[in-house]
Amino acid sequence: MPTTFTRLLLDHAAQRPNAAALREKEFGIWQTLTWSALATLVRELACGLHEAGLKRGEHIVVVGANRPRLQACMLAAQSLGAVPVPLYQDAAPTEFVFPITNADVAFAIVEDQEQVDKMLEVREQCPQLARIWFDDPRGLRNYNEPGLSPLDALIAAGRAFNAANPGVFDAEVQATQPDDVAAMFFTSGTTGNPKGVVHTHMTLIDRAQAGAKFDKLTNAEEVLAYLPPAWVGQNIFSYAQWLVCGYVVNCPESASTVAIDLNDIGPTYYFAPPRIFEGLLTTVMIRMEDAGAIKKGLFHHFMAVARRVGTRLMDGQPVGALDRLHYAIGKLLIYGPLRNTLGLSRVRVAYTAGEAIGPDLFTFYRSIGINLKQLYGSTETAVFVCLQPDHEAKADTVGVPIDGVEIRLTDSGEILVKSPGLLKEYYRNPAATAEVLTPDGWYHTGDAGFLDAGGHLKIIDRAKDVGRIMGGPNDGAMFAPKYVENKLKFFPHIKEAVAIGDKRATVCAFINIDFEAVGNWAERRNLPYAGYTDLAQKPEVYELIRECVEKVNADLAVDEKLAGSQISRFLILHKELDADDGELTRTRKVRRGFIAERYQVLVDALYGGKTNQYIETQVKFEDGRSGMVAADLKIVDTKVFPPVKAAA
Q1: Quick one: fold of 466-637?
Q2: How far apart are CA 129 and CA 63, in angstroms?
Q3: How far is CA 359 from CA 489, 555, 589, in A?
Q4: What is the pTM of this model?
Q5: Which residues contact 243 (CB under 8 A, 6 or more apart)?
Q6: With contact defined as beta carbons under 8 Å apart, do 578 and 598 qualify?
Q7: Residue 465: pLDDT over 90
Q8: Which candidate, 511, 581, 503, 575, places its Cα nearest to that of 547?
Q9: What is the DSSP letter of 472?
Q10: Angle (CA) 296 299 300, round 5°
Q11: Per-residue model confidence (pLDDT) at position 453
């Protein structure tokens, strides 16, 4: 039945008042907020915001990590028919200017001193930003800025207002309808200013319900909320589905304690982008390299067993009695302790999305008994479009359309989606809205792909990024940069990659090494280095990466459509690609056009036949200072394989 987020909250508070709704780790101890206590907090915050002048339809910015009181602030705003706009907490102050200006934001609720400083910095450009409330008062005692107050003051004011006007909150909740706007999420802005994606209560709740039904989620689930709240995926898993199902959302103490907190909680429902799963596995493999001979031998022996039968057991396929016994011993000695070390021993459903996940990585987790699956969606579709059913998880697809979703492919291979979860519009951008939404309700995803024989969707690349090789022996061949980049990133030693080749005779690539993984590899070989730039240019590291690139080329050679996308030359960049330098979005998507422009001298060197190229690049450090990184980069040729003809 259509409803709103606040009504869902009040239903849980009425039916399960003393059940845990949110937990937050503070000073090493988990603090619990019950549904009834949360409902009271939301009522007081809503009354405080009402008294402060927040009106129906107005926007309020929320910036910070996952914190129970920030969750409550979003619910409070929605109770009044206002629209919370979560922004990325690691964004630079200049990145806040466009959303605040675009949405006419007058009120902001932020987590701590860092975010207060950013808001105060942008006030000159955003004079309408009148009120700022902060959750964590540390470091803010001596601040005396107009309109700056602690969240506790807002709560106290709301409590007094509610006592004097007890009917206001309930009247506002009743006035808010399912088709009212519930939230606005700004896209990552890979090609210009971000766009405000407008979603209603109905679109978000409908998709949350569809996902919950698909995986049989209940109020018994435990979730760890550690990804940015401004990302729609986190908002669905730790907000929309939380309110639909009534499970417990746990907020880590800090970004640095997530691994410890993961072990504390033992989530049953877990989501992470591939880079998180890659990082967990890299940590495991680094530790195994340092283990004793017996432990290392047992690990490799039983991992071979897992690769042979683990995924078959996970998929419900028949497995012989001897193999089952062998796997059970492995579970006791290796897989169980490993899942426990990763904090995933209780996971019933785990999802990954955002980028393609490497087949070996995907198989590893499923082989040790973790039900890792893939999903497909976007900010504009309220995340859930396709999900992988249990026993049908494949590394090269993203699942089947779920309840309410229709998929259609254009002649060019672009995926169109019709769903109850589609955006209402791009805020104040009718031209962009008209570009993606057809009059009859189909959404242009911008992704190219196809449905396989089993009805599973397979994604190739962004439709606009699929190009053509021009000239040379592969003239006219398809070039799918993201597909190539993802294959490179499947290797643990490669963190990021940028493939170049559209309208060129050959494909070249920029590579970022994974500093931790390659650093450990170098240390075990007694290879000294003095930081990222030095390590990246070591001849031994180039040889390591060249082997990875040539394995990708060999793999591409057997793909009839993409054999022409093999990489002929590459270089390892002197610095890591960074969102603060504009090279990545806040969701770590490569801004390919910006990178090609910024490093034009390197592109020219790759295609000009040079064997090295000197470059200086300005970078921004974490403390806000700027500096220069310079290096003489090597350029390496790689082996390209003749296309392998498919068997008739």
Answers
A1: GMP Synthetase; Chain A, domain 3 (3.30.300)
A2: 14
A3: 11, 12, 20
A4: 0.84
A5: 5, 8, 9, 12, 205, 208
A6: no
A7: no
A8: 511
A9: S
A10: 90
A11: 85
